[in-house]
Specification:
2 copies of one chain form a homodimer.
Chain A lengths: L3 H21 L6 H8 L5 H5 L4 H27 L12 H18 L7 H9 L4 H24 L4 H25 L3 H14 L4 H4 L6
Helix pairs in contact in A: 1-2, 1-4, 4-5, 4-7, 5-8, 5-9, 6-7, 7-8, 8-9
Chain lengths: 213, 213
């Protein structure tokens, strides 16, 4: 049971937890609902996650971190040369716009029902679970670090790249929330536009004054 | 009981709901805890909020909207002339930095235990309560609108001002969350710095390349 089948059950439970957190938050997600949603056998939850909901939540946050990390990396690679090096074929602002376009698509596909699981777990559990808060801090760091490295590869000095990458992640997080509340991808589009100004300072003349209506 | 005393009880309940949502989210806040926290008599909750938790949550979101709106307005006024007009004594980027400094102080004062109630209610309840989602959308709009007007008063064309204001609100929301997860005001400082670049394009030369370490 700890073999392939066990690993698949464990992954399915984490997957369901992730999706339900995105929809209803952490406190609003009951473990029975997770088991039902996953289709896993009833006893499997405490077999795979003997520490219960907190451990499952941590796994879901890690899964979200990895998934969004891949999305960002793929967008950066697609924009680079075939070898994946930091070519000049797309600017950092264009890469961010591609990531935001994907997020906007996910949001509309879900009828604005899915938010970022890392944000909501931070806000609900940051004061109550060091383990979950830590998982969320690591998730944010797993996005900020590579974005900073990418900006360094595109010529930003390191401290500036780190600060800018942190701002990029904050802006995207916030824009997902405002978009979800307003049931509109407009806040995400505003974020993409502002980040293009911030990241592509050279191309700023056009972007900075362009109307978004 | 619907007089001054009743209004005070109602306000106290909404105040407690707001503080508890900021700490533990909406689903994680039980109504008994709200009544206890407020010190209000047990029966008062359903007297003042006969529609229950959703109505109380809506009131808390409205309270949060008004309070943060005042904070932003005060920061803008302090930066203006004595008459409160949009004077040139502080740039929009400096005003935003003042707001963010205040938020950073609130976050450290609470030992990073308080987040934005509007974000967390959006993420937890957006899929389950149109009434709460709508309250959150209105809260965000109540911040975006005045910031846009402020930017128009400082010379931005209207569509650009609106888009920029939306990005400002998103950035601040996201930075509060990342700061809370990382137990550090650094993400808020990165947001202030990025928004200064975005808002004070003329002063950009210095700000844009300044290290934040």
């Amino acid at each position: 049971m700890t073999g392939t089948k066990g690993a698949m059950t464990s992954a399915r439970l984490a997957e369901s937890m992730l999706e339900l957190i995105q929809r209803n938050g952490y406190s609003g997600t009951g473990l029975n609902t997770v088991v039902e949603h996953s289709g896993a056998p009833k006893g499997s939850l405490y077999f795979h996650f003997p520490q219960g909901k907190e451990a499952l939540g941590e796994k879901a946050v890690e899964l979200a971190a990895a998934r969004f990390g891949s999305l960002v990396a793929d967008s950066a690679l697609e924009s680079g040369s075939a070898s994946g090096s930091a070519s000049a074929s797309a600017t950092p602002g264009e890469v961010v716009r591609r990531v935001i376009d994907t997020l906007a698509g996910m949001l509309t596909d879900s009828d604005f029902q899915l938010g970022c699981p890392v944000s909501v777990v931070t806000l609900e559990m940051g004061a109550r679970s060091e383990r979950l808060r830590d998982a969320c801090a690591n998730a944010f760091e797993s996005w900020i670090g590579p974005v900073a490295e990418y900006l360094v590869a595109h010529g930003r000095p390191r401290p500036d790249a780190r600060a800018t990458a942190t701002a990029v992640v904050s802006m995207v997080e916030g824009a997902v929330i405002v978009s979800r509340a307003q049931r509109s991808t407009e806040p995400l589009r505003c974020a993409a536009r502002a980040l293009a100004v911030l990241l592509d300072e050279g191309d700023k003349g056009d972007e900075g004054t362009e109307a978004s209506a």
